[in-house]
Write a structure and sequence with these properties.
heterodimer; A: 8-stranded mixed sheet; 16 helices; 12% strand; B: 8-stranded mixed sheet; 8 strands
Chain lengths: 364, 286
């Protein structure tokens, strides 16, 4: 038995749905569609996405000017398509630039503390280059939205990464900056570095990197030491919410050769961390498209005939992988949702509404 | 500066948007080179499913490496600090390990360093590079971090590394895309950003999983594909879908046509990965 009978039930009962999956499978599209579906079910829903495709953002009526920290309420616009809409729908697209800087600003309310961190050249480098803070910032934003209590359902579209599991590892990676056992070395006066091993290590480091770098490093470490308590507290709170029954994960996948192992890796990781996992989507399925009578194909141009051969081969390939995924989802007692491939690119809010309706009714 | 054909370049990075088949393409590239009798190393970066630093034999002339920063850092230190006992102690010092893992610049520097260091040991090195943003960060972080070490040995190594990557006789950066709007647009944005880092070594493009490769020869000729009559979101039949997709892919490819991009390869959707190897061998074998 799965925890829910249908996706609709899940969207009504959970408060946070985190959408994971590898890049290019349609995570953002389905995240938006799920929030739309929840709104049609009467929920106050918000979708939080860090990397919307430009056209998708445009279709939601968002542009670079709407990028920011306040949710954009699109309920009125949605009523033009769904007149009897009872819920609310909003989207939020935080600025992905300068996320490490944004992260640092969560660490202290004291502007002078923040300024001393920002002035450090190592921080400056990290704030420009550190891409791993996107995931954590998404969680922080989700946490803030959750705390306001303004929304019944938050759908979080995870930022692009190599695999679905990377999202879960992000806070721990960031936490390494604040590793108590390490950071404390930076706040000891140099003459108190009793351990000869430690003193030697710094000596070698200095010979490789120059003394300016090492002194900046000490300064940076000491600044992190000052704010580590706040970071730990925030991280604990976020992890508590992720583990609560309010929150669950969903995975979006395409029926390709790795889908199976990706699914299992995520399943294992969520289980180890005691996090919920309720739904698996197989997106863009060709199986939903009815086959024309053989005669209708025979007199087509060579291009179409060739493409038709390819279409049939892709469909067979898909069916095979789908069978394996279905079995796996059943064994893991997870909802399995098959989403058909559309005949056009998703460009408008109406297209997204069409997909959200498809989510609710099994198409094939 | 002279430009070598892609198949002659010693070092290839394959990048592009998530889901475009970077692993499939880089692996086929490496297999095709190995089949042509070249000693080839295929590198993946920090694949958590495989042991860190694992070197594996994939067949005649072909090795694979799971490049991991911790392992690479230790090796790099062994090179820099000639006394191996000291190097080991240094690399295993908890604080130094903390730095090599937590500090983003060092992390990227040692990964690229390991790749760079492998090039002279093989005829070819093919890297399954991270997706767009992460690939850029890999190069950017290395360049910027190296600046913090001005004058020291790490700085010199980083400069030499970036010079190799920016040299079109030695290195090829291949951006893969699908004939879909988002990957195509993203490929151009990535190429523009890479051009700022490596102005002398423009990226090459590969189109993957085309619905039909031959009809893309002239994307603007729409004549033989009739327009969709139906307006339904899901295609009414396979024929309806095929026509819609052929037209859409051609339209999407206009993005490349307008930017003057001619892909080095256009692969159809292959059910069997060895078909891509065969296609590449036709070119590499000569």
């Amino acid at each position: 038995m799965t925890a829910f009978h249908s996706l609709d039930e899940l969207l009504v009962k959970r408060r946070i749905l985190i959408c994971a999956g590898t890049g290019g499978v349609g995570k953002t599209t389905l995240s938006v569609a799920m929030a739309l579906r929840a709104a049609t079910l009467g929920r106050k829903a918000v979708v939080l996405t860090l990397d919307p495709a430009k056209r998708l953002a445009t279709s939601l009526g968002m542009d670079s000017a709407s990028v920011g920290d306040t949710p954009l309420d699109l309920t009125a616009r949605l009523r033009e398509t769904i007149p009897h809409l009872t819920g609310r729908f909003a989207a939020i697209m935080p600025d992905t630039g300068r996320t490490f800087d944004a992260f640092v600003s969560t660490l202290s309310d004291d502007p002078s503390v923040l300024q001393s961190i920002r002035r450090n050249p190592i921080f400056e480098m990290i704030s420009r280059e550190y891409s791993g803070s996107n995931e954590y910032m998404a969680m922080v934003r989700m946490h803030q939205l959750h705390r306001t209590g303004e929304y019944d359902l938050i759908v979080l579209d995870t930022p692009p990464s190599r695999n679905a599991v990377a999202f879960l590892d992000a806070p721990q990676l960031l936490a390494r900056f604040f590793d108590e056992r390490m950071v404390r070395w930076f706040v000891l006066p140099t003459n108190q570095l009793f351990a000869t091993g430690m003193r030697k290590a710094f000596g070698i480091l200095e010979s490789l990197t120059g003394s300016a770098f090492v002194s900046n490093l000490f300064d940076f470490g000491a600044r992190l030491f000052d704010v580590r308590a706040r970071f730990s507290r925030d991280l604990d709170e976020i992890m508590k919410i992720l583990r609560s029954p309010d929150c669950t994960f969903g995975m979006v996948t395409a029926p390709h050769a790795e889908a199976h192992s990706d699914f299992r890796a995520l399943r294992e990781n969520l289980r180890d961390r005691k996090l919920g996992f309720d739904v698996l989507f197989a997106n863009r399925l060709l199986g939903a498209i009815p086959l024309a009578a053989a005669g209708a194909i025979a007199d087509q141009s060579p291009i179409v005939l060739r493409a038709h051969d390819q279409f049939i081969r892709m469909r067979e390939f898909e069916t095979r992988h789908l069978t394996a995924l279905t079995r796996e989802a059943l064994r893991e007692q997870i909802l399995f949702s098959k989403v058909p491939e559309l005949a056009r690119d998703v460009h408008t809010l109406d297209d997204l509404v069409a997909i959200s309706a498809l989510l609710a009714t099994p198409a094939f | 500066m002279s430009v070598s054909p892609l198949e002659r370049r010693r070092l290839i990075f394959v990048t592009g948007k998530g889901g475009v088949g970077k692993t499939e393409i880089s692996m086929a590239w490496a297999r095709a080179l190995a089949a042509a009798g070249r000693e080839t190393l295929w590198i993946e970066i920090e694949n958590p499913a495989r042991p860190a630093g694992e070197l594996k034999n994939l067949g005649p002339n072909l090795l694979s490496l799971n490049c991991e920063a911790g392992v690479a850092f230790e090796e790099y230190m062994a090179l820099k600090i000639k006394v191996s006992v000291v190097a080991k102690l240094f690399a295993r010092n908890p604080l130094i390990q903390y730095l090599s893992q937590a500090s983003p610049g060092i992390h990227e520097l040692v990964i690229l360093g390991k790749i760079w260091d492998s090039v002279p040991k093989f005829d070819h090195v093919v890297v399954d590079a991270p997706a767009t943003g992460h690939a850029l960060a890999l190069f950017h972080a290395t360049r910027n971090f190296a600046r913090l070490f001005e004058g020291g040995p790490i700085h010199r190594d980083a400069e030499a590394m970036l010079a190799t990557f920016g040299d079109s006789r030695q290195t090829g950066i291949v951006i893969a895309a699908l004939p879909e709007e988002m990957p195509l647009v993203e490929s151009l944005e990535l190429s523009a950003k890479l051009a700022k880092l490596f102005p002398e070594n423009p990226a090459s493009f590969v189109l993957n999983r085309c619905f039909d490769t031959e009809c893309y020869a002239s994307p603007s000729s729409q004549d033989s594909i009739p327009e969709r009559k139906s307006k339904t979101a899901i295609a009414e039949s396979d024929l309806d879908y095929i026509q819609a997709r052929l037209r859409r892919e051609r339209e999407n490819l206009e993005v490349w046509v307008r930017a003057g991009v001619v892909p080095a390869f256009s692969f159809p959707w292959y059910r069997d990965p060895s078909d891509m190897v065969d296609r590449l061998r036709e070119v590499f074998g000569k």
